[in-house]
């Protein structure tokens, strides 16, 4: 898989994002046929880890935001798949 200029532009944009609510994207490495993304270490673990531990208080706004993000990704994925099949 060859990366395009648009891909590298998106990596630069991701690198510039800086928020306490986001895990910082540090960079991207291509090691022969393997692609590796590097992110800042998150001591709390992944979202999956936090939910699996079950000791997190989840309020209604968090649930709403999480579901909204999941739906947005699903819609984008569907639209990309649908537009590529035309």
Characterise the protein shown here:
The structure is a single chain. The protein has 86 residues and is α+β, with helices and mostly antiparallel strands. The chain has one domain. The protein has helices at residues 5-16, 47-53, 60-85; strands spanning 25-31, 34-39. A hairpin with a 2-residue loop joins β1 (25-31) and β2. The longest helix has 26 residues, at 60-85. The protein is extended. Keywords: Lyase, Nucleotide-binding. InterPro entries: Cyclic_nucleotide_synthase, Kinase-like_dom_sf, Ser-Thr/Tyr_kinase_cat_dom.
Any key phrases for this structure?
86 residues, two-stranded antiparallel sheet, Serine-threonine/tyrosine-protein kinase catalytic domain-containing protein, lyase, 2 strands, 15% strand, extended, 3 helices, alpha+beta, guanylate cyclase activity
Write the layout of secondary structure elements.
Elements: H1 5-16, E1 25-31, E2 34-39, H2 47-53, H3 60-85
Antiparallel strand pairs: 1-2
Order of helices and strands: HEEHH
- Extended strand count: 2
Percent of residues in helices:
40-55%
**Biggest sheet details:** 2 strands, antiparallel
Query: Which consecutive residue ranges, at least 5 long each, have pLDDT under 50?
Result: none
Biggest sheet strand line-up: 1-2
Strand fraction: 15-25%
Number of domains: 1
Spatial shape: extended
In whole angstroms, the N-to-C terminal distance is: 22 Å
Using only CA atoms, what is the Rg?
16 Å
Structural class of the helix and strand makeup?
alpha+beta
Mean model confidence by pLDDT: 79
Q: Count of helical segments?
A: 3
Organism: Steinernema carpocapsae (Entomopathogenic nematode)
Domain Serine-threonine/tyrosine-protein kinase catalytic: 6-71
Protein name: Serine-threonine/tyrosine-protein kinase catalytic domain-containing protein
InterPro entries: Cyclic_nucleotide_synthase, Kinase-like_dom_sf, Ser-Thr/Tyr_kinase_cat_dom
